[in-house]
């Protein structure tokens, strides 16, 4: 009889253990739920960058430097268009020289730390003489332009660029040119 009682107890413990495990598993199954979410993204309008007008020094005399201010009629003009409210960064690649066709002669060109204006409102409408400092960034360093945001919903930003050419006293006569490159990118702000 003692063996029967021990077997019965063992059997009862096994049954209780199995029932307990089933109860725990069934509670976990009842406590679960499922939710469905979505991933979304909005692609911003592509940036558009245009060289509106060249930086024009006009007629230059041998040995006499010529400067064009960033708010002068002859200033270079770039326009940038993009998504309203988006942050952007600018990077100018500026030449050290302008050259005659075929590189037969070069003339020094330089840009000082105040040779750029940035109109963030577009109110100057590609006219450097109409730029107001309150409408953007005045006298910026073209080697390190400020980052900015487009006005909402979308806007045009104008960059006005001045500079200086320095011909030598025996500078070869002719038309000199050099490339000025503007790179613009969204910066994630």
Explain this structure.
The chain is an alpha+beta fold. The chain has one domain: Immunoglobulin-like, CATH 2.60.40. It is built from one helix and 13 strands; from the N terminus they run αβββββββββββββ. The chain has a five-stranded antiparallel β-sheet with strand order 1-3-10-7-8, with no helix packed on it. The chain is elongated.
Strand content bin? 25-35%
Shape: elongated
Widest sheet, order of strands: 1-3-10-7-8
Class of secondary structure makeup = alpha+beta
Tell me the series of helices and strands, N- to C-terminal: HEEEEEEEEEEEEE
Main β-sheet description: 5 strands, antiparallel
Whole-number count of domains: 1
Keyword list:
single chain; 189 residues; Immunoglobulin-like; 5-stranded antiparallel β-sheet; 1 helix; 34% strand
What secondary-structure arrangement, pairings included, does this model have?
Layout: H1 2-30, E1 48-53, E2 66-68, E3 76-83, E4 87-93, E5 97-100, E6 106-110, E7 116-119, E8 136-140, E9 148-149, E10 154-161, E11 163-166, E12 176-177, E13 181-186
Antiparallel strand pairs: 1-3, 2-11, 3-10, 4-9, 4-13, 5-6, 5-12, 6-11, 7-8, 7-10
């Amino acid at each position: 009889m003692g063996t029967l009682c021990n077997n019965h107890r063992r059997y009862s413990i096994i049954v209780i253990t199995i029932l307990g495990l089933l109860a725990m598993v069934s509670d976990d199954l009842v406590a679960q739920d499922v939710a469905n979410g979505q991933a979304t993204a909005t692609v911003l309008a592509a940036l558009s960058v245009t060289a509106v007008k060249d930086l024009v020094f006009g007629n230059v005399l041998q040995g006499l430097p010529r400067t064009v201010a960033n708010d002068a009629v002859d200033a270079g003009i770039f326009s940038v268009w993009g998504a309203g409210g988006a942050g952007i960064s600018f990077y100018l690649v500026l030449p050290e020289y302008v050259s005659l066709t075929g590189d037969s002669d070069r003339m020094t060109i330089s840009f000082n730390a105040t040779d750029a204006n940035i109109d963030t409102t577009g109110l100057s409408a590609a006219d450097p003489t109409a730029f107001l400092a309150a409408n953007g960034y005045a006298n910026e360093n073209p080697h390190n332009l400020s980052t900015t945001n487009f006005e909402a919903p979308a806007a045009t930003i104008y960059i006005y660029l001045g500079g200086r050419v320095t011909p030598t006293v025996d500078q070869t006569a002719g038309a000199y040119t050099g490339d000025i490159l503007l790179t613009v990118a969204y910066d994630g702000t």
